[in-house]
Design a protein that fits this description.
- The termini are far apart.
- The chain has a five-stranded antiparallel β-sheet with strand order 1-2-3-4-5. Strands 13-12-14-15-16 form a five-stranded mixed β-sheet. A four-stranded antiparallel β-sheet has the order 6-9-10-11, covered by helices on one side.
- A hairpin with a 5-residue loop joins strand 1 and strand 2.
- The chain is α+β, with helices and mostly antiparallel strands and 632 residues long.
- The protein is built from 27 helices and 16 strands.
- Helices cover 50% and strands 10% of the residues.
Length: 632
């Protein structure tokens, strides 16, 4: 049984792993103040960015859904890994050697399941590629590619391969590389039948399906031989622990930088279409893998493109075949159009050619022209809907008008609706007022659930029995305490330690704030001076009760609204001193108020105790006077 990873190795991974680089593999980030980055959250759907990263303290937090943590927590959640698997994955990429306690096995045997399954796919991809490039039996696959103007350089660029027709060739290869039967089957590379193990793909041209980080997690396989007993033109890896077809887009690992840079994505229908687009200079192209384009794909692209409300416009361009199936796919995409903050477009080549066919007939310029000439999605939808009706008859015109009205009503920019109403009324041959009435009626109808607009999450309900309820920052004392904790977490070396040591946990009104401050005291202010930002936050998180840890992460990335030195990244020292002063002042004033009330009561009932309270009250008043004198 694998031993526990040593704590010092876990800390080394946290220190060595680049949080910003890891997050950028999934989210496009923009600067949001010195030392702070922002983007669309990968864990919930949102229109405006609330996902914040502070690389200097090694923390991330979403102020929309409340998720947050360090680099290990991010990898755990984004890739659905256990803690050890996430540590092992980051260690492998960061060059940290892991050691296991309790007499754990060597690292090769102790790696997590996901790591082993990804490694199996890497080995399989290398094997398949070698067969395609040099194997005699792969000649039909090479002929298929040549017929589409894809040479060996293109095949290598996209990691293509060929599965031998023999039933157990890959089984033997993986077994020779040390993979167990269970690992082969779980990875989806091998099947298990009555006669034992067999290769899942046989006699087929293969495309590796990679996740956004570039790890191969599955394969798409194209039928080549007429005597292939499986009639389906394409086969894809069945869903496995590392492959879910609704959560991957073919080519995204290659396209994500172009998509983020230009805030443009091109969605095509097949593997060869992605290849044709990239080779033609349209490096924003991606495709689904054996499923229709859906909600999870939209979320993935939105966070890479920064598809935000109020921001510079992003563009998503769908290419569809001109046949009935292509039109159906386009209309399905239109149903989800409300999920985008920006405009989506449709590109259909004359003659209904897909990008691969278009590159063969018209070259690279034709493919680029297809994308450049895309029309707005709702315009394409209107023409598609009207095309189903015979506008030469009165019945057809009325039916077309009623069918197209919901499409016009769905146009997000309401200023465009009157113009399109006039244009479409002319296309149909009906009065503008008549169509406008139908559009107004359609606008009052609820949007179908499949294309529902994103609704902000409701505020969480506070449980009265919760020992750590969310701090109510509408209370001034709570707001000041929260600002102090932000500074203590993010800029501990700028805080006057002697002053902070005079503050007691009881000075914090919110129990959650009290727990965080007590955790800082437990770790020690001296530790804060020698730790890196990430290590300090990690130590505080570890010392905080479990229900409050997410608050620590949130405070470690929350924006500190003051000026910063662009060279050092430090905040204005006067701001830090003022926050500490305000916290001390409020603490003393609360103590003075409490003592004053107690004194009035004791003077009538316990004169001796009253004298002691009076002495304490005088001392507190002197402390407050000295404090105000010190900070001016």
């Amino acid at each position: 049984m694998t031993g526990r990873i040593r704590e010092e190795d876990v800390q080394a991974v946290k220190e060595r792993a680049d949080l910003e680089a890891v997050v950028r593999e999934h989210v496009t980030l923009r600067t949001a103040g010195i030392g702070s980055l922002k983007g669309l959250c990968p864990f919930h759907d949102e229109k405006t960015p609330s996902f914040t990263v502070r690389p200097s303290v090694g923390s991330w937090h979403c102020f929309g859904c409340g998720e947050g943590g360090d680099v290990i927590a991010f990898v755990q959640k984004i890739d659905h890994l256990t803690f050890p698997e996430a540590v092992e994955r980051l260690a492998g990429k960061s060059g940290v050697e892991l050691h296991y306690e309790e007499g754990g096995p060597p690292r090769e045997e102790g790696v997590g399941r996901r790591t082993r399954l990804v490694e199996a796919h890497r080995v399989a991809e290398e094997f398949y590629t070698e067969v395609l490039l040099r194997g005699r039996e792969a000649r039909p696959g090479r002929d298929f590619l040549r017929a589409r103007d894809f040479n060996s350089t293109a095949a290598t660029r996209f990691g293509m391969g060929f599965a031998p027709r023999g039933g157990t060739v890959l089984v033997a290869h993986l077994h020779g590389k040390g993979f167990s039967e269970e690992e082969m089957v779980t990875a989806g590379l091998v099947g298990r039948g009555q006669r034992g193990l067999y290769d899942r793909f046989r006699g087929r041209l293969l495309w590796p399906i990679r996740d956004i980080t570039g790890d191969t997690v599955g394969f798409g396989a194209r039928r080549i031989f007429e005597d292939d007993r499986i009639q389906a033109k394409y086969l894809n890896t069945a869903e496995t622990p590392i492959y879910k077809k609704t959560s991957v887009l073919y080519g995204l690992d290659l396209a994500k930088r172009s998509i983020a840079r230009d805030r443009t994505a091109v969605v095509v229908e097949g593997y060869t279409d992605v290849m044709a687009c990239h080779l033609s200079g349209v490096e924003h192209a991606v495709a689904t893998c054996g499923t229709s384009f859906g909600v999870d794909h939209i979320k993935m692209l939105r966070r890479i493109m920064r598809d935000e409300q109020g921001g510079a416009p992003a563009r998503t361009i769908f290419t569809f075949d001109g046949d009935a199936a292509g039109q159906k796919a386009a209309m399905k995409a239109f149903e989800e159009d409300q999920r985008w903050a920006s405009q989506s477009y449709v590109a259909v080549a004359q003659g209904g050619q897909d990008p691969c066919e278009l590159r063969l007939s018209g070259g690279d310029l034709a493919v680029r022209g297809l994308v450049e000439d895309a029309v707005p999605m709702f315009e394409f939808a209107m023409r598609t809907v009207l095309g189903r009706h015979d506008l030469r008859t009165a019945e057809g015109r009325v039916a077309g008008m009623r069918a197209v009205a919901p499409v016009i009503a769905r146009i997000r920019d309401q200023a465009l609706r009157p113009e399109y109403t006039r244009t479409v009324a002319g296309m149909i041959g009906v009065d503008i007022e008549q169509l406008a009435m139908e559009v107004a009626k359609a606008a009052r109808q609820p949007i179908p659930s499949s294309g529902a607009a994103v609704v902000p999450e409701a505020a969480p309900v506070v449980d009265p029995s919760d020992p750590f309820p969310p701090p109510d920052v509408r209370v001034p004392a709570v707001a000041v305490a929260q600002l102090l904790l932000q500074v203590l977490l993010q800029y501990p070396r700028q805080v006057p330690v002697a002053e902070v040591q005079q503050i007691e946990p009881g000075s914090f009104v919110s129990p959650a704030h009290r727990a965080v401050f007590a955790a800082m005291q437990q770790v020690g202010w001296q530790q804060a001076q020698i730790d890196s930002g990430a290590a300090w936050v990690a130590h505080v998180v570890a010392a905080t009760p479990e229900p409050v840890r997410q608050l620590v992460v949130a405070l470690s990335v929350a924006e500190v609204r003051t000026r910063r030195d662009p060279q050092t990244g430090e905040v204005d020292q006067r701001y830090v001193d003022d926050i500490v002063f305000r916290m001390q002042e409020m603490t003393l004033r609360r103590a003075i108020d409490d003592a004053t009330v107690a004194l009035r009561h004791l003077e009538q009932h316990d004169p001796q105790q009253a004298r002691a309270v009076a002495i304490d009250l005088t001392a507190r008043q002197q402390q407050l006077a000295q404090l105000r004198s010190k900070f001016g």
